[in-house]
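User: Here's a chain of 212 residues. Predict its fold as tokens.
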Amino acid sequence: MVDTGWHKQYLHHASKSGMLSAVPDQITPVPTTSVPITCVPITLRDDAMMAIAALTRAHRALAFAVSEAVGLPSPGLGLLRLLARRDSATISQIATTLRVDQSVASRQVTVLVDRGLVERDVDASDRRVHPLRLTDAGREVYAQALAQTQARATIGFAGWSVEELDEVTALTLRLAEAVERSASAGLSAQHADSPTDEPYVHREASDEREHD
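Assistant: Prediction complete.
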């Protein structure tokens, strides 16, 4: 039987974070199964993928508007958000969370350090490790960005109920996990060349035996 504990983790992330910053620090691992599984084709409507693309573009536009308002590029704001939700983080942890190369994460951190928004510390137990933390200036910029986001959300989400926001938050987190799982799915050449171009979902092998 499929372990559904991952859904509870989504709701936990949604409840502890703001509506527009409800992305967990790390994608929840794909749920495991207790029996062998097989793949059965389903049809994912094209307009569903178009809706996902539209959401991505809209979020990018919002991030750009906020970054323009506070005078900091979107990647920098993402890094400030990450550090604001943690006491500290290393370059390696930042790269893993943001899904970028360590060299990319290092360049982004350097920009923020040079602007006095982030500071490098020294781990007392391992002086080779340099945890990164927000400075007072970094926290101020992040607060400005958060205020900008909330002010825009007040306009953009006018008419939405709290229940609707809760529901869309949980569903969006599930959507992010599903897209992530789709991106990392290892399909065989036969599946990749399928003329139906249908995505695949898992089903317990025992279900097939019942219908043989």
